[in-house]
């Protein structure tokens, strides 16, 4: 208590005081130190609080108090007049009506349980892969098995499942497929390219440099257009790769070029002595790479790697320009029918929250991983 | 793997003949000749930049020499991958900066190469690693990471790691230069005991005490050349050249 009095009398003492005591003073002591330290800081605090309150209340009113949660059904579809009434807030009815389209795209309606299971499988696979105790060789087998199962569920055609062409895949399921397969193939590829770029063999080195520089120098949209329009022209007669496959290849090549540079950064950070020690112990190039170089190099580049993964997850939304119904495109198309026109904000918020959930999880996980791995490495 | 083995060089562990090396226009090794017999302990000393580290790094091809001939255990150091692989299996090396693998435990540092390169089974590799760690007197640190050890302990692990490959020849490249003074002795003691067991050793070091105690021969290098060579007694006691006198004066003042 005496400490608190001292602070009031002489605020400059706060710096000198040790913090635990201050925190012991509770919320008011903390607020006094951090928010109302001088008249300028008090003013700033009050202005910002007022602005936040204003925006927060409006948002709350729009999103909850004035929101329309459902609309009556009419003979020609839903009647959305209540959403269009003056003073009405968010029209969450559109989500209630269209969430299945946003999540699953144009996948046949009565078969939606299949992509729903696929989404659950993906999330389960991510969670299992994130746990260190499962980091064994069996995990790779699990991935293979799961991707097989996911393909089986999506396509069907056997075990009594009706066949669904990949032209009808869409929504969150499609976004997860493109992003996961993209990263799962691009990452190992990028490691090879990064190693190749540092190779002593000139041809391999030039090939890797050319690949990275060409792909990085081109926007992803251009690559997708090329995959969509030019690629079929280059293929021999009769060979016709599906649009989704072509987009997937373009995305893999794009991701790998960026990841390769991140991995190369990690390789360069490794001291030369590590290579020399491995060399004099008789380790081969691949043994050195796998056991000495990569475990250390990849660990140092976790933050930029995850940063790229997060970027890629959202970049997959660019497939909409070649007409694939991924999560974002589905959210856009969901409000195309006349009854729902004008409610794009609600569907975009819905899609945005889904993107955010995945990206935020990745971000938190990377922080945890970085901390956990650094605990091991007291350099 | 089969290299021409000259019966007359049988007892010669390392033979260096008229070796020259340049870094660009800088002539770092000039006509160096040095023969090291099996079981011999040679200490190489000289001022920094004299080429002594470069010379021993040429023995296991960490650096490439451009002229002359180096033969290690009857195998010539050339561009033949099989020769180089055979040589690096027989030659162990200890670095100034330890170069332990920081992401592996002490035990894993010692078992990795025997398992991957020599194909030793894990239990055998671990038993052998523990025996060598015992020998360098840090058996209780096997499950720690290198970063948790002192510099002297790390360097002793590095010695154990090299020994686990059962090399015929050990190279030491200024093994105590990066250590705090109080840790130098523990590493030198380990090296002395190794020398007494008859290991062929080539050490680049300024530790005159160590040289006096174990070296069969001391080689003094300056400007890429071998200037003097002989028993520790003669090299340190009766230096013939001014360069060696100057160097000895400087080293003795430091220590």
Order of helices and strands of chain B: EEEHEEHEHHHEHEHEEHH
Percent range for β-strand residues of chain B: 15-25%
| Whole-number count of domains of chain A | 2
Low-confidence segments of chain A, ≥5 residues, pLDDT <50?
1-9, 11-20
Mean pLDDT of chain B: 89
Distance between the termini of chain A: 44 Å
**CATH top level of the largest domain in chain A?**
Mainly Alpha
State the end-to-end distance of chain B.
46 Å
CATH topology of the largest domain in chain A: MetI-like fold
Spatial strand sequence of the major β-sheet of chain B: 6-7-8-3-9-10
Q: Summarize the main sheet of chain B.
A: 6 strands, mixed
Number of strands of chain B: 10
Which two protein chains have the largest interface (Cβ within 8 Å of the partner's Cβ), and how many residues from each?
A-B, 21 and 25 residues
What is the averaged pLDDT score of chain A? 83
The geometry of chain A reads as globular
Radius of gyration of chain B: 18 Å
Fraction of helical residues of chain B: 25-40%
Structural Rg of chain A: 27 Å
- Count of DSSP E strands of chain A? 3
Question: How would you describe this protein?
Answer:
The complex is a heterodimer of chains A (379) and B (255). Chain A has 379 residues and is mostly helical. Chain A has 2 domains: 22-65; 98-107 and 164-378, MetI-like (MetI-like fold), CATH 1.10.3720. Chain A has helices at 2-9, 13-16, 19-24, 27-34, 39-65, 81-84, 93-104, 113-130, 137-155, 171-197, 202-216, 220-234, 243-269, 272-280, 285-300, 302-315, 327-334, 344-376, and strands at 73-74, 77-78, 325-326. A two-stranded antiparallel ribbon of chain A has the order 1-2. In chain A, a hairpin with a 2-residue loop joins strand 1 (73-74) and strand 2. In chain A, helix 13 packs across helix 15. Chain B has helices at residues 52-59, 81-90, 106-117, 122-135, 151-163, 181-196, 208-214, 232-237, 242-254; strands at residues 12-23, 26-37, 41-45, 67-72, 75-76, 91-94, 169-173, 200-204, 217-222, 225-230. Chain B is of the alpha/beta class. In chain B, helix 4 packs across helix 5 (151-163). Chain B starts with 11 loop residues before the first strand and ends with a helix.
């Amino acid at each position: 208590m005496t400490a608190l009095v001292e602070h009031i009398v002489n605020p400059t003492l706060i710096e000198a005081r040790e913090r635990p005591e201050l925190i012991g003073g509770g919320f008011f002591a903390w607020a006094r130190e951090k928010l109302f330290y001088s008249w300028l800081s008090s003013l700033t605090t009050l202005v910002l609080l007022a602005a936040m309150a204003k925006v927060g209340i409006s948002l709350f009113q729009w999103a909850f108090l004035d929101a329309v949660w459902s609309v009556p059904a009419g003979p020609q579809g839903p009647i959305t007049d209540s959403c269009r009434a003056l003073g009405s807030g968010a029209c969450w009815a559109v989500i209630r009506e269209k969430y299945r389209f946003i999540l699953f795209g144009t996948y046949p309606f009565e078969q939606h349980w299949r992509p729903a299971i696929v989404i659950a499988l993906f999330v389960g696979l991510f969670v299992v892969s994130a746990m260190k105790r499962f980091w064994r060789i069996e995990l790779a087998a699990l991935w293979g098995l799961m991707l097989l199962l996911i393909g089986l569920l999506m396509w069907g055609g056997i075990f009594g499942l009706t066949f669904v062409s990949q032209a009808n895949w869409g929504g969150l399921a499609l976004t997860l497929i493109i992003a996961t397969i993209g990263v799962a193939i691009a990452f190992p590829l990028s490691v090879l390219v990064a190693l190749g770029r540092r190779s002593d063999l000139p041809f391999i080195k030039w090939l890797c440099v050319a690949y990275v520089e060409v792909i990085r120098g081109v926007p992803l949209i251009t690559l997708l257009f090329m995959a969509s329009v030019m690629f079929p022209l280059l293929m021999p007669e009769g060979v016709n790769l599906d649009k989704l496959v072509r987009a997937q290849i373009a995305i893999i090549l794009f991701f790998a070029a960026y990841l390769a540079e991140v991995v190369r950064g990690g390789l360069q950070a490794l001291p030369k002595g590590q290579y020399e020690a491995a060399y004099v112990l008789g380790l081969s190039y691949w043994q050195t790479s796998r056991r000495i170089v990569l475990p250390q190099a990849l660990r140092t580049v976790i933050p930029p790697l995850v940063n790229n993964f997060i970027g890629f997850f959202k970049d997959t939304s660019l497939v909409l320009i070649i007409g694939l119904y991924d999560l974002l495109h589905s959210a856009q198309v969901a409000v195309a029918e006349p009854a729902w026109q004008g409610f794009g904000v609600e569907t975009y918020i819905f899609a945005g929250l889904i993107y955010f959930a995945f990206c935020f999880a990745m971000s938190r996980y990377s922080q945890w991983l970085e901390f956990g791995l650094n605990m091991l490495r007291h350099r | 793997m089969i290299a021409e083995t000259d019966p007359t060089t049988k007892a010669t562990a390392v033979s260096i003949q008229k070796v020259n090396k340049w870094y660009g226009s800088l002539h770092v090794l000039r006509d160096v000749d040095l023969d090291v017999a099996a079981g011999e302990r040679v200490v190489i000393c000289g001022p920094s930049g004299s080429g002594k580290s470069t010379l021993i790094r040429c023995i296991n091809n960490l650096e490439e020499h451009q002229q002359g001939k180096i033969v290690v255990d009857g195998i010539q150091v050339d561009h033949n991958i099989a020769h180089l692989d055979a040589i690096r299996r027989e030659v162990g090396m200890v670095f100034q900066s330890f170069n332990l693998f920081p992401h592996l435990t002490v035990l894993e540092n010692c078992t990795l190469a025997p398992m991957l390169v020599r194909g030793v089974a894990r239990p055998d590799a671990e038993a052998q690693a523990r025996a060598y760690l015992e020998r360098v007197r840090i058996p209780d640190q096997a499950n720690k990471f290198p970063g948790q050890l002192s510099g002297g302990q790390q360097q002793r692990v590095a010695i154990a790691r090299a020994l686990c490959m059962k090399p015929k020849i050990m190279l030491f490249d200024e093994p105590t230069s990066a250590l705090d003074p109080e840790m130098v002795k523990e590493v030198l003691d380990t090296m002395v005991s190794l020398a007494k067991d008859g290991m062929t050793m080539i050490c680049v070091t300024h530790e005159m005490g160590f040289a006096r105690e174990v070296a069969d021969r001391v080689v003094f290098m300056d400007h890429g050349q071998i200037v003097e060579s002989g028993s520790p007694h003669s090299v340190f006691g009766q230096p013939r050249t001014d360069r060696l006198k100057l160097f000895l004066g400087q080293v003795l003042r430091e220590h």
